[in-house]
Amino acid sequence: MEAEEYLLLLGLALAVLALVYPGQTLSGEFCEGSHGKLGDYYVSVSDGFLRVSGESGDAFVAYRQNVILRRVPLDYSYSPDSGCYTVKIRYKGQGFLYVFAGGLALAGGAFFYMAFLKYH
Fold this sequence. Notes:
8 strands; alpha+beta; 5-stranded antiparallel β-sheet; 2 helices; membrane
């Protein structure tokens, strides 16, 4: 095998590994008036509303057992006795996105070189 074929395989392997790599589960308990961060998300509870915000605005809003807005998949539970929410978010972070994009760019560059430049 030649060097560009190794680059193609390396790029594809990086992209697949970034997709298969398991994320971590971040969890926390938030009561009335409390707030905090879970990964890249900001979580707060105010007036009984659970609000999870990301960089682009609100990602999840719930009032007790009623979900009002769901843009991200997360698990939550509400305890009526204490009035607290338990939030669990599956989180991979932004690093996996860079590895995935880098793998695709590496594989695409190697393919372009083999298909259009080397054997032209």
